[in-house]
Each structure stands twice: as structure tokens, then as C-alpha cells.
Amino acid sequence: MRPGLRLCGPLLAVALLLGGCDGQAQPIAGADQIRISPVPGVAIDRPRLPDASPMVAGLVAGLPGGDLVPYLHQELTWARCGDLECADVLAPLDYANPSARAVTLAVARRPATRSPRLGTLFVNPGGPGASGRSLVQSFDTKGLEQYDIVGWDPRGTGASTPVRCFGAAQTDAFTQVDSSPDTDAERTALIQATYEFGESCWEHSGVLLEHISTIETARDLDLLRQLVGDDELHYLGYSYGTQIGATYAELFPQHTGRLVLDAAVDITDNDAVIQAQGFDLALDHFATWCAGQDCALGKTKQQVLSATTGLFDKLDASPLRVRTRTLTQSLAVSGVAAMMYGGKDAWPTLATMIAAAISGNGQGLLAAADSLNSRDGQGNYGSLFYSFPAISCLDSDQDKGVLDADRTWQTDEKKAPVFGTYFGPQYSCALWPVRPAPQLHIRGMGAKPIVVIGGTGDNATPYQQAVDMARQLDSGVLVTREGDGHGSYGGKSACIDQIVVKYLVGGVVPADGARCT
């Protein structure tokens, strides 16, 4: 895909200082706002920008008193919002200085409909940055009617003091940038665009970016647990929501009740298995299915794969016009990746979308990319697009700079030849304008059994991550679903649904290593 990329080649017409092949910083075009170190180091290239004091929605004066007591004395005032009940809660922006400023947390509840009531089941859909309030709206409560189902938009997301960055038009332009550069000029453009994106987030969000870590979100969750009056936290989290749950178990093992962590993410800092491998595996399964259906993309798995990657390569040179917009290679890759979340049920639609784009109609893949990017039909972006990198990069203490991201990309391509290539180098955290937050080694010592679920064909969170999480958590219990798509509980497997309900309602701990289809 990128035969012409040279990690130490000249960069053209951009305001950068890059580490050269001789290990020295080399000026480019006479400007210096981006400095890239030739020597890898934790967060070494993250810029330090001038102080910013933007008006941030939901960021208010802290509750007086100097400690958490005033926050714990808040009353949850529930009001109708559609067919749910909603409330707002204040949490300290900085738990080390509670009275300074506070963030607003938006919470939604679907009350229990059966007795005896078991308390509250908190739910989170992941992201990072997806809306927990929206999950409550769609959450399948069958078998869980004795619980109040409560979801919240984590700090920095949705209606909970959200991160703000570019406007819609600028974000559109950002998504058009080639994310897997073939040339030095394309790489330069990607670095510049990534830097400017982070700069815009700092200018529009300021100090909020320093206080949206998973540790702080887990502390918010414990605040909410106390406000609803529960002695223990009962919780079901998907994807990144598993990191929230695992972090909670590390911080508050004595208050950890029944936790179900579905589609587990990596909590080990072990990069042996990367996300792109999950997408490659899902694409491989799709190609095998498609060939077996004698689909328009080919009669063999390899033909289907070649048709898909051939489309990507063609779009790199010749993007498709879609009304007033353009389907680029990067957006097409995002569109295909988006469809992988739906598992086998989405494969017929995906085959149709790819075939249509090959024939010159990119509308379907562009719409799929929009869904992944949280872009609506009016061209506006949801907070997920902005909060995802903001939270991820605050939690990341592993990035070692731009040049290390280039080297990692080369390794990723070997591990995942399709998505490892087309996802490109990960510059977002390398150029993020905020230092990483402290991180924990998560074990959850003293917590009750924690059920960890992994799908063997999960595209976004490879199955090995669930194996590793269950092994690392002191009380982890691994449950496996043999199947495709992201996440397992909620209609994909009657076996999984039964295990989860029995555990959450009756405390029945499944056998470690249980498998379902």
C-alpha cells in the first residue's frame, strides 16, 4: 500500500521539525510548531500549548467544603425524558481538589418493573465516548426486570460536559485526510492534520482534557453508586466499558458486586494482539462466507479479499463523488470496518455496499463510515468522535512519539496485512496536547467473581484480550462465545444471555472456561 514511504525521507512544505536519519532535529520550511524527537520516549512529542480558558458546557463551580461530602449529599431528582427518567449530578473535575470546579454527569434510568427489587444495574456501551443514556433506551431488560437499569454519559461525552474540538466542516476535512500515507507529502499532511485536531480540542475544551481519564470515570461511577443508595456496584459494560468495570474493581474491590465485562479490551499493555487483527479476522470470515454465497465479489475467499483491497487502492488514487461529498480510501476502510460490528447479519449488506462502490456508487460505504464517525445526516458530529481520542490518549502512557508510531505501523502490517495497513500510523496520541494520566496495574484483588466474555470472531476487541483480562483479574471468570460481531450479551446467543441473567439476578457464577454458540 505504501511502497514509497520513507521514515527518514524529506518532508515538503509544512511547519515541522522532524528527527532526521542522523538523529538530529531537522527544520522544514522554516517553522517550528511541531517538534518530533528522533529518540522514542513516553509522550515525547506531545506539544505543550499555551493555556486555554474556553467556556465548556457543564463545567461549573465546585461544591464548597473541600472534600467529597457535599457531592455525596446530592439528591437525584429524576424527571421524565421520553420513556425514561433522567437526572443531572455534579462530580469534581479534579478529585484532588473537589471544591474548585465540577463536571455535570447526565444520567438515565429505566425503573425496575418486578419485585423484589435488586437495586441498580449500571450499564455502559464502551467507546470510549459512547452514551450510556442511549444504551438504557435500547437495553434488553428481559430477565433483569428486578433492577433499575441506569446508564450515564461518562465525563467528556454526550451530555456530560463533552469534549469539543473542530466544527463540522473542519471535521469533515479531517476525515478526508489519507490515514495510510504512501508518500512523504501524505505523511506530512497527516501529521499536520492530527496536530491541528489536537490543538483544536485544547482550544475548545481546555483543562477538561486533563480530567477525563478512566480512573476518574470509575470514581464517578462509585459516586453514582452511593447516590442511588447501593452498597455494591452491579454493572454490565461492553468494550471500553470493560475497562471502566475492571478499573472500578481495582479501586473499589470492597464495593464490587456482580460485574459482567463483555467484549473485553486489553488491560495488560501487551501489544502482541492488536485491534487490526480482529478486523482482519472478521474480514476473512466475511470473505469466506461471501465466496460460499457466490457473491458478486468473487467465487473464492481470495477473490473477495482482492476485490475489497482493490477498491481501497483504487480510491486512494481516484476517490468517488457521492453527491456533494467524496468517498476516499480512508472513509471506505472506515465503512467496511463499521459493518464488521454487526457480525454475520451485516454481511449481505456489506457485500452489496462493496460491490456498489466498485461500480461507482459509494453512498452505502460513506453512510457506514458516517455511523462509525458519529456523523449525522445534517453533517454534525456527535461527541464520540472527539471524546474517543481525548479519553484514549489521556489513558495512554505507551506512545513513544511519531517515529515510534511509524515503526509500530510497520509491525502492525505484518500482524494484520489488511487493516494493519489501511488503518495507518497512529499519530493521535503522539501529538495529543495533554500529558498521560497515571495508570493502574489492574488485578481487582478482593473483588467478587467478575464474568469476562469474549467472542472468538470479535472484530473490535480480539478474543485474546478477553482471555488475558480474565487471567489478570484475580477473580476473573472467562466465558466464550463462538461467533462473529462485537459484543455477546443481548440477543446474539441464548446461552450467553442465560449465563449473564443467572449471574446478575441469582449470583450463579458460571464455570470458568464455559463456551457458548
Describe this structure in words.
The protein is an alpha/beta fold and 517 residues long. Helices cover 37% and strands 17% of the residues. Strands 4, 5, 6, 7, 8, 9, 10, 11, 14, 15 and 16 form an eleven-stranded mixed sheet that branches. A three-stranded mixed sheet has the order 2-1-3, covered by helices on one side. Strands 12-13 form a two-stranded antiparallel ribbon. It starts with 15 loop residues before the first strand and ends with a strand. The model is unreliable at 1-31 (pLDDT under 50).
The number of helices is 16
Q: Please tell me what the overall shape is.
A: globular
Compute the CA-based radius of gyration.
23 Å
Number of strands: 16
- What is the helix fraction of residues, given as a range? 25-40%
Unreliable residue stretches: 1-31
β-strand amount: 15-25%
Which structural traits does this protein have?
single chain; 517 residues; alpha/beta; 11-stranded mixed β-sheet; 3-stranded mixed β-sheet; 16 helices; 16 strands; disordered N terminus
In short:
This protein is of the alpha/beta class. 37% of the residues lie in helices and 17% in strands.
Write the topology of this structure.
Blueprint (H helix, E strand, L loop, with lengths): L15 E4 L5 E4 L5 E2 L24 E2 L7 H4 L6 E3 L2 E9 L8 E10 L8 E6 L7 H7 L8 E7 L14 H9 L7 H22 L8 H14 L5 E6 L1 H12 L4 E7 L12 H18 L8 H17 L2 E3 L2 E3 L1 H12 L6 H12 L4 H10 L10 H13 L6 H14 L3 H4 L27 E8 L5 H10 L3 E9 L9 H13 L7 E3 L1
Parallel strand pairs: 1-3, 8-9, 8-10, 10-11, 11-14, 14-15, 15-16
Antiparallel strand pairs: 1-2, 4-7, 5-6, 6-7, 7-9, 12-13
Helix pairs in contact: 5-6, 7-8, 8-9, 9-11
